[in-house]
Design goal:
This protein is α+β, with helices and mostly antiparallel strands and 377 residues long. Helices cover 40% and strands 23% of the residues. The chain folds into 2 domains: 187 residues, 2-Layer Sandwich (Ribosomal Protein S5, domain 2); 170 residues, Alpha-Beta Plaits (2-Layer Sandwich), CATH 3.30.70. The structure holds alpha-D-galactopyranose.
């Protein structure tokens, strides 16, 4: 795990002085409610300990210089002139651009960034760097911005600068995570509450060892399909369509399956949050149903994700499993009986490796706090 001391020492080594502040923002896993956020629906994510960290010090010339320890690369941009480029720096630049667009006065900085959120794995590495950067600007310029507003600003950066037409879930949980809890969020009203997780189970993240480029993926296509389906029903979003209405409609087969996923997934997320939030067995069943729906109706799984999820579901101590995040590659999660996780990881890992020749990795996550800033000592 990355620590404040580690990132402060990296800053010192690079710039020969101590940083002013340190910012940390977590990645996330989504327990249930997948591809529902951009349909005005319900999500139940949790922040994970894996986070992006930035140590930074003010500059007075409007320049932002950020060195990534992960890519061993220094990138720079100016706050007075924004030009699109490529790579990881676009997330930070997009946040600066959005804040400026909204009229915030910003200071530049020298910074060092490091993450232990696996990149492109469905764990929101992009929301983590967005929130960590946003908090860096907020700390240096004394901007009082509510966590929810921070999340919508970061989401805007990703949509309008990076070009990934994402929903709000990832930025919301990175901004608002709470130790020990999942966040139940109504993406239409923004009503939310914290939901304690079952005490007899742990969440195992299962990284298939496969990766995707989110903005190049079929994500934006799925979003457009959902919008087309809602339009067919004459509704603002699929949130307003019932399963019955969907099944009886003359919608094309593909759009009907997309809509059916969103409608049934909203019902599952509501059920977990409202009725069975401490019942691991019941949650597990809903996770399995969610995976099936994402695989068959929404078609955002992959052979590697399916193999991992099936093997998990067949292993002792597993209540249920499903892919998490946008899909197409990356990570799945399993809800596993407390005490069984070590044997579970050993068995699933061995079977998966033999079946796919890929190198998986596994970690147990505890729900962690959202983005925060520390004054460097
Ligand atoms: C990505 C997006 C989110 C959400 C998920 C799927 O993580 O950034 O907004 O749509 O996919 O649930």
């Amino acid at each position: 795990m990355i620590t404040t001391d580690f990132i402060a020492a990296a800053f010192q080594a690079r710039y020969g002085s101590t940083p002013d502040f340190i910012s940390r923002a977590p990645g996330r896993v989504n327990l249930i409610g997948e591809h529902t956020d951009y349909n005005d629906g319900f999500v139940l994510p949790l922040g994970i300990p894996h986070s992006t960290w930035i140590a930074f010090k003010r500059r007075n010339d409007g320049a932002v210089n950020l060195h990534s320890l992960d890519f061993n690369q220094t990138e720079s941009f100016s706050l007075s002139e924004f030009a699109r480029g490529t790579g990881w720096i676009e997330y930070a630049k997009g946040v600066a651009w959005t804040l400026r667009e909204q009229g915030f006065a910003l200071s530049g900085f020298d910074g060092v960034v490091k993450t232990d959120v696996p990149i492109g794995a469905g764990l929101s590495s992009s929301a983590a760097i967005e929130l960590a950067t946003l908090n860096a600007f907020a700390a240096l310029s004394d901007l009082a911005i509510e966590p929810m507003r921070k999340a919508t600003l970061a989401q805007r950066a990703e949509r309008e600068w990076v070009g990934m037409n994402c929903g709000m879930m990832d930025q919301m949980i990175s901004a608002m995570g709470k130790k020990g809890n999942a966040l139940f969020l109504d993406c239409r009203s923004l009503d939310h509450r914290y939901v304690p997780l079952p005490s007899d189970a742990v969440i195992v993240v299962m990284d298939t060892g496969t990766r995707r480029e989110l903005k190049d993926s079929r994500y934006n296509e799925r979003r457009a399909e959902c919008e087309a389906a809602a339009k067919f029903f004459g509704k603002a979003s699929l949130r307003d369509v019932s399963l019955d209405e969907c099944n009886r409609s003359a919608l094309s087969d593909t759009l009907k399956r997309r809509a059916r996923h969103v409608i049934s997934e909203n019902a599952r997320a509501l059920k977990v949050a409202n009725d069975v939030s401490t019942d691991s067995r019941a949650i597990g069943t809903l996770l399995n149903e969610s995976h099936q729906s994402l695989r068959d109706d929404f078609e955002v799984s992959s052979p590697a994700l399916d193999a991992m999820v099936e093997m998990a579901q067949q292993t002792d101590g597993c209540y249920g499993a499903r892919m998490t995040g946008a899909g197409f590659a990356g990570c799945a999660i399993a809800l596993v009986e407390k005490g069984c996780e070590a044997a579970f990881i050993r068995q699933v890992g061995a079977r998966y490796q033999v079946a796919t020749s890929l190198s998986p990795s596994f970690f147990v996550v505890e729900a962690s706090d959202g983005a925060e800033v520390f004054e460097a000592r």
